[in-house]
Amino acid sequence: MSVTKKLMYINRRAPYGTIYAWESLEVVLIGAAFEQDVSMAFIDDGIYQLLKGQDTNDIGMKNFSPTYSALGDFEVTQIFVEKESLEARGLALDDLMHLTYEDEDEDYAEKDSIKVVSSSELADIMEQQDVLYNF
Fold this sequence. Notes:
By secondary structure, the protein is of the alpha/beta class. It is about 20% helix and about 25% strand.
């Protein structure tokens, strides 16, 4: 019998320049494929991973940001963005990709996956997790 654990992947780094963001996204999808209860948090420069309209042509790296739109298909529906990190960078929820999932309990109604929360709310959410992975 397998036990489902609550796993949170915490993303603190910008999307390009290191492998951390891409590796985080890969392990999130793998964990979700194995039916774990997966959530994500974006803090500090990690919020740049969710920015709309990313263009990587000038840096010669593959743009993996469209992959975030698949998270809902893998039942990754809890994506937390720290409010203070957004504000410190002059960003708002509207600057981020619109990530959604279909709620099968409500006739497959489309719902937003991203929730902007304060640092204290995020700390409470982290406290409820079984495992925290930092990237």
